[in-house]
Each structure stands twice: as C-alpha cells, then as structure tokens.
C-alpha cells in the first residue's frame, strides 16, 4: 500500500550494509533499465516524445530555479498537454465498462501510466453516461492522464523520493479536478452548460441520472465547478493560462501535510516561479492589446493585476473541489462501489489519507 512505499524508502536509507546496498543497486539498475527501454506511441501531431518515466526523468536539464521565457515554457507545456490529451489519437472513447486489474498499483501508475488505461482522446463529448458500471473506466483514464502529465514536469526530479510520492498522490485530485473545470468551461462557451463532462466521452446528464449515489456525487461536483467557472468566464482564461495555473495548482502545497522542510521549500519556490511566469505572460498580452485599446501604462498595469487576481483565485476553489472528489471516491473505494476497491484506488484515496490529514 501507499505507506509501504514510504517505509521501503526509509529502510533503504537506514541499511548501510555493503551487501544490502549492492543488492538494492542491482534491483534499482534492473528497474531503471526496464524504464529506459519502455517505449510507446509518439504523438504524431507534435513529434515530441514524453518519456513515461517517473517525474520527468531524463527531461529538461535546466536548473529548476532558472526563470525561462514565458513563451518557451508555455510552448513546452502545451505540447505536453496535447500529448496527454491524445489529440491525434483516433482510437475512440473507452469501453463503457472497464474495471482494470485489481492488481494495478502505484508503481505501474507512476512508471507505466498506459498500463492502467488506453491513451484515448480526452476531448469532452457526451458518449457515456456516468453510472456505477462506468465509474472505474472514467477513473482509470483520468488517473493515467495525470501520471503521464507528471512525467513531463522536469522539476519533480529534484525532489526527494518520499516528497515526490506524496506530491504525486496527494495532489492528484486537485489537478484532475482543475482539468475537469477547464473542460467544462470550454463546453459552456459552446452553450453546453447542463452536462458535467469528465473527459474521454464520460459525462453526467442530470435528466438521465437514476443512480442516487452517482447522482449525488456528480451534482455536488457540478455545483462547485459552476462556482469555479465564474471567474474563469470573467477573464476568459486561455489555454496558455490554463497550463500555467495547472502547474501552480500542482506545486501549491500549502495544505499538504507530510512534506519534508526541504520539499516544502522547493515546492513553494516552484509555485512562485510559475506565478511569475504567468504574470510575465499576462503582462505581455496586455501590452499587446494596449495600442489598439488606447490604454495607458498605468491602465495596463492595473488590468494585469486584476487578471492575475482572478486567475490566482482559482486554486482556492479547486482545493475545495479536490477534497470533495477525494472524500467521495474514498467512500466509494471503501464500499467497493463500481468495483473501485482495487490496490491502486486504495493507495490513492484511502491509504494516503493518513499522510494528508495527519
């Protein structure tokens, strides 16, 4: 389970015997070889390969404290998002029922996300109504998307192993929920405000709901999402801003228990770095509009700050949404609703709770 991963890491650090260290090195070397040899389909749309290795292993060599040009940062993460969304994949939606193997665990999710769900397009569309029978399929796809996305975040390789694990697991619901918020925001722009879209064809239509537990879960999620979407609508959040705010949501560990002092300081630095990057981008876009709008320098500054306030308010609502999602799914795991009592689900939603809430 989740706590066993952390305990194993601690034991490895304590055991200084040469024979033990040699054995551990052999195991580690063997695992790293399998990770390095792991291959998968490369997105044809952008010709970028995002290794499905843990925490962006072997990616960017830039210092995590180096503030890069905002356009370069955005370009990189837009490509990552496009890859994870499978924008060029024509394999279609997931089957309506897909429980996955009960033996899938956190190790596979971290290193081989595609082993837990096919990489199908995430474009929101109303194909499969949410019900007990479809819950697992939706959950596996969104979790696989999250772990593939993590593989492109190179800063995570600078965290200690225990902190990486805590961050990856404990921030999952927040990050996934923020992606769901953005998907529903885009659907609302197209006039579709009645349905709740989860991605990859999974949706909830209150008019078709006939499962009290699922309906209660989706209705409460929809209520909070609608509340969060209001400031998104107010500023008309762009995809470029979305990818940066998503990184801020990941590294905002203010309410996360269990990180080491060094890990907490590092995540704060990364969170601030992406806030500065967002500020640079917003300021640049405002300056581009200034000439045509006739704005003064002071007005550009005021509009930039107002937009930043609206964008940085989003993680507050997402925190609440993520907690609701995690609490609801934990209850479903414990009751095995929708066949959710698998190893991976328990590690993410029940075992890790002792880290988050103590």
From TrEMBL:
Residues 10-23 have a biased composition (Basic and acidic residues). The keyword Cell membrane does not apply. It holds the Pfam family Hormone_recep. The keyword Transcription applies. SUPFAM superfamilies: Nuclear receptor ligand-binding domain. It comes from the Eukaryota. Residues 1-23 are annotated as: Disordered. SMART domains: HOLI. Residues 137-322 form the NR LBD domain. Keywords: Receptor, Transcription, Transcription regulation. This is NR LBD domain-containing protein. It comes from Caenorhabditis briggsae.
């Amino acid at each position: 389970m989740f706590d066993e991963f952390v305990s194993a890491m601690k034991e490895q650090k304590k055991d200084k015997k040469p024979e033990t260290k040699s054995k551990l090195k052999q195991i580690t070397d063997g695992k790293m070889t399998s990770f390095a040899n792991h291959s998968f389909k490369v997105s044809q749309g952008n010709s970028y390969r995002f290794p499905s290795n843990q925490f962006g292993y072997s990616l960017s060599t830039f210092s995590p404290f180096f503030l890069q040009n905002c356009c370069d940062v955005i370009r990189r993460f837009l490509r990552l998002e496009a890859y994870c969304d499978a924008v060029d994949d024509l394999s279609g939606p997931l089957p309506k029922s897909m429980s996955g193997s009960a033996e899938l665990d956190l190790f596979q999710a971290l290193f081989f996300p595609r082993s837990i769900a096919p990489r199908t397009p995430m474009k929101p569309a109303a194909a499969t109504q949410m019900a007990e029978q479809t819950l697992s399929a939706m959950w596996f796809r969104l979790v696989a998307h999250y772990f593939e996305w993590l593989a492109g975040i190179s800063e995570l390789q600078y965290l200690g192993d225990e902190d990486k694990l805590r961050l990856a697991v404990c921030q999952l619901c927040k990050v996934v929920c923020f992606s769901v918020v953005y998907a529903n925001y885009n659907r609302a722009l197209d006039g579709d405000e009645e349905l709740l879209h989860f991605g990859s064809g999974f949706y909830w239509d209150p008019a078709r709901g006939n499962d009290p537990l699922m309906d209660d879960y989706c209705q409460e999620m929809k209520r909070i999402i609608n509340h969060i979407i209001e400031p998104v609508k107010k500023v008309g959040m762009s995809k470029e801003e979305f990818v940066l705010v998503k990184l801020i949501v990941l590294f905002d560990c203010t309410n996360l228990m269990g990180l080491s002092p060094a890990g907490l300081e590092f995540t704060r630095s990364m969170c601030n770095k992406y806030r500065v990057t967002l500020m640079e981008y917003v300021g640049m876009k405002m300056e581009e509009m200034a000439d045509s709008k006739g704005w003064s320098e002071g007005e550009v500054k005021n509009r930039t700050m107002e937009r930043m306030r609206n964008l940085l308010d989003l993680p507050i609502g997402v925190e609440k949404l993520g907690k609701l999602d995690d609490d609801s799914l934990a209850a479903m795991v414990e009751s095995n609703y929708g066949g959710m009592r698998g190893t991976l689900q328990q590690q993410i939603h029940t075992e890790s709770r002792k880290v988050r809430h103590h």
